[in-house]
Amino acid sequence: GSLPVDLRRVADGSAESPALVDDNGSEEDYSYEEFCHANPRYLQPGGEQLAVSELISDGNVVYAEALWDHVTMDDQELAFKAGEVIQVLEASNKDWWWGRNEDKEAWLPASFVRGYIRQCRKHTGMFTPAQLSTIFGNIEDIYKFQRKFLKDLEKLYNKEEPHLSEIGSCFLQHQEGFAIYSEYCNNHPGACLELSNLMKQSKYRHFFEACRLLQQMIDIAIDGFLLTPVQKICKYPLQLAELLKYTTQDHSDYNNIKAAYEAMKNVACLINERKRRLESIDKIARWQVSIVNWEGQDILGKSSELIHSGELTKISKQGKSQQRTFFLFDHQLVFCKKDLLRRDMLYYKGRMDMDEMEVVDVEDGKDKDFNISVKNAFKIVNNATEEVHLFCGKKPGDKKKWLEACTNERRRVQEDKEMGMEISENQKKQAMQNARKSRHGKMKGVSYSRCPVPPLLQSLHPIHQRHITVPTSIPQQQVFALAEPKRKPSLFWHTFNKLTPFKK
């Protein structure tokens, strides 16, 4: 229920510590190196209090951030609200510290003060607001939501007789709130990239490590902690499935737990799908910039997923046939011509708006409209203009795949509408900018034709017909393919590359 990264807020020096802001690499290297690595005692139980105490006795100014409200009638105790900043003046006792806020100096319970993000905010010389937004995303919204969820969950837990607890309704009541995890998960690859860039400088490595040591957190780098919400949202369906397995059907909570399991499975699915779709738009943007002589609107204007691709012969009314490579996206079909010498180079030749089209199967033999003999053919008819396009595949299997893909395209468009699957203009713009940047680098023409196309899946709930990482029956084991945080500070690129559609 608490924040995955809630490290003790520490500041050595004044509100803007020169030791943290100085970029010349001398002063900060020395003080942090000494502080983090010279004293293994800080890693022992009670090390956090020892570290704070020693920092104070060395003349440093140490701040803490209140994690909870502390209400007291005792004059000797400091009352404060969650989020308030307190200067710690004395920390020799592990339970009670002496501190000062705007109102007065008094004792405060040591267990009530923690924090992390505001520590970074205070150091404006180290972090711009944009960097903080990239690294932490909406983690504070998740924290607020989880605190409320936890309170409601605890109310439903029966301490005396745990087996009589009825917690299913809590998940159902908060079902919509869990959608905020989607933004966090989508933001996560960008957070890893931003962090990996910062971690090239020793002052950032030392800063995050100092925060971790002071809070006595387990030996996982910050990227590991930032992965926690991604894992958390995927574990709920697994935990509920496990609970359901041990709940008898006559238990008063059985139906609610079953409904909660389905609900959380859908939440995890939608988040997975949004994440996958974001990876997909990066790939599509890179594909588009590799096409020679592209015309008209960007593909991302209407589409966010490649459904099928392959070669077909396009036949005109005059009987002229052209070999083209076709790419079926949601809402549109794009066709290109291969370069005669460089087969991986494609030239843009046109597109069709699938929202206006109907796909019609054509029997082998003489075709009435076109007055020619055809094999493995199908037609695409424009409902508005009644214009007819004729296509032939090389093999009967090709035609079957294209017909299935066209059905699939319509179904996906419908599901996206029902699921509220939208990608913001900003995300599309960003994808195109990134693709153009990498194109200016050393990118060759990228062919999408070898790109694996998602399998056609019927008979599942629409939301589960996509990127299946959620079991459709109650799982016996963990099935989510999300990485656990590494024990040692991990290489950010390792995590990031797994989330990147192509490497540069």
TrEMBL record:
Location within or outside the cell: Cytoplasm
Pfam families found in the cross-reference section: RhoGEF, SH3_1, SOS1_NGEF_PH
UniProtKB keywords: Cytoplasm, Guanine-nucleotide releasing factor, SH3 domain
DH domain span: 108-274
GO biological processes: cell migration; filopodium assembly; lamellipodium assembly; regulation of cell migration
Gene3D superfamilies the record matches: Dbl homology (DH) domain, Pleckstrin-homology domain (PH domain)/Phosphotyrosine-binding domain (PTB), SH3 Domains
Residue span(s) of domain SH3: 59-118
Keyword Cytoplasm among record annotations: yes
MF term (GO), any: guanyl-nucleotide exchange factor activity
Protein name as annotated: Spermatosis associated 13
Organism in which the protein naturally occurs: Naja naja (Indian cobra)
Taxonomic classification: Eukaryota, Metazoa, Chordata, Craniata, Vertebrata
Gene this chain is encoded by: SPATA13
